[in-house]
Records
---
Amino acid sequence: PPSWPRQQRMEEPQRARCGWSCTWQFLIPVFWLVTIVVGCFAILPWGIVELRRAHEETHVQAWFVAGIFTCLAVPISFWDAAQHFRHWYNAPQQRLVIRILWMVPIYAVDSFFALRFVDANIYLDTARECYEAYV
């Protein structure tokens, strides 16, 4: 349609000849979705059952669960930020959105390390709070 911005009209011919890159762009979200489903519904319950069989303490199980969810949250957040960089049309607003998106991996990694290294918790939380104040 003629009301589309010029940049979007120019992408249509490129879309017809993109070949492998279009397939790659489609497969990445599918891969992430499969990873999330397998991680949450297969690896997580299996790991907890195995840790219970080995009579591991509760905090070891918590480390395992925190590690799984950290490994799921960080790549998803990076993917979202990468998509904002790829489709950089509204820079002032997207810059703020990317700052907020970076809070997910920072909080996830901070929480995992704070759970794992209890004595270093105050230092990790200080770094996290500094970034939160920046955002």
---
Amino acid sequence: MVRRGAIRNNPTKGRKQIRKVTYKYFIDCAIPAEDGIFDLDHFEKYIADNYKVVKGAHKGDLGKKVRLFKKSENLHVHTDVKVSRRYLKYLTKKYLHRQELGEWLRVVSAPGRQKGYTLKYFNIGQEEQPAAAEETAEETTA
């Protein structure tokens, strides 16, 4: 005899399914890698060794929560734990300064895409032009 409204053994009914969220970030290293001054393999190893998943964790203990991989001239970071995108920029700048590339390369937000950064050269030629213009202005007044 089956009653109306009897409870059935349906484990999914009435429970919310937890959706697994993956945060995806990237660093575009194409410009310096093409010139041969940037080693993407060494950079990937540096990020893997120095990345902290959560505050207070040990460096390099990525576990299954963080995955690093290269795709063409980009380094992709996929994580299941919410991590600041700015932390990836911090590690990139730290790497550039240790490799003595911080004077020539800068880390800028990727145009048109929110989840990544691009490595670009400083515009050294544009900084020298105003200084040269000041010198010519002083010569004409003297």
---
Amino acid sequence: AAAAAEPPAEWKGANLKSLGISVACGALIWFIPPPAGVEIMAWKLLAIFVATIVGIITQPVPLGAVAMIGLGAAMVLKVLPFTAAFSAFATEIPWLIAVAFFLARGFIKTGLGNRIAYMIVSAFGSTTLGLTYSLVFAEALLAPAIPSVAARAGGIFLPLCKALCGACGSNAGDGTERKMGSYLMFTMFQMSTISSSMFITAMAANPLSVNLAAAAIGQTISWGQWALAASVPGFLTLLLAPLVLYILYPPEQKESPEAPKKAKEELAKLGPMTTDEKIMGGALLVTVFLWIAGGSFGIGSVAAALVGLTILLVTGVVTWKECLAEGPAWDTLTWFAALIAMAAYLNKYGLIKWFSGQVVNVVGGLGLAWQPAFLIALVIYFYAHYMFASGAAHIGAMYTAFLSVAVACGSPPLVAALALGIMSNIMGCTTHYGIGSAPPYFGAGYVDLPKWWTLGGIMSAFYLALWIPVCSVWWKVIGLY
């Protein structure tokens, strides 16, 4: 008898529909002639960047693979040389995020994360909202002391949030994400953009805004001026935004009156701290101290994180094999560095300068009063962040141009400088790559990409609707204009 025909092999590769959409979006831009004033290389890189972003959204293959394909296309098509395509792998933020994942591994492995989580649950755990607020305000209190939002997110609060979610039975990948973790992770990410906006020292790129403002308008924004200007709208946002997300993206477990009692029982079972927990706690304290004070010794954020990781590796609390197995760390490092490189070269090739110039010409030529003219410029500046994988890159490329047009239209210089500087943090709320805290929280796996972008877009509109009128009144009260 003839051998039975073998069934066709199951396709194990990319989702071809999603891949086709990504390629089509890039090809559409590629074959459209560039506008006057745009260099052909800038236009071609924009096509590849858009195709990569669409691929990251539709995910025909995992995120890191999409990024590698995008970099490969840029090199094969001679848009970027190797040194440019991989240039961001030598920048701090992607590596800081990766090392933070390794530190988080030790935080959870040793049980220290669970111990701290149970302590928090025993104090605030009767409701998910109460737990969230306790973490939100703890992060805001640390913000002015730790000038890296990526360090605060990846090194301190992400591992704590993971431990809390695990203690409450909400884990990524097993169908229990919406029980509590999805709401907690996304809210903590969103609020990290707010806490970063409230102090000059809460985000590494904020001093760049201050320096550019001083050069453009001849006024230096002091730490106190920035903090006072952001205090009322920032505090209102920290109060209201978790409630808004509680409505838009509610956790399935809203109340758990038995949780504090259960947490105390689990704490009793854990017994006294183990040696590994003490080492982990000591390593974390050293790292946080260096994040706060390391600048005085010339020690940067990545070096500080590596000091903590070194302690864990030397003592065997975390092994290098475990670091190699930390897939989300390497995946995040890959796709985030790829996007940073592409976005940086969009700026170097002149596309961002051209775009800024077009906005300046249009807004400046409308003949509007300074208030509506500045509002238009501010909104465009805010949503242009979809093209950036770094707040510093966005500020460096567009801050001075938009500040100049705002002042030319009659805006009070200090008001315009502060508004653009503060919004340079909040605009990171829209995507999973726009600010240093986004990749760690997204990489935890509790919120899928379409939901992340959808909620990010909604929250961005909420922030603008809240901050613009509140700042208009508050800044008048404190005499900024």
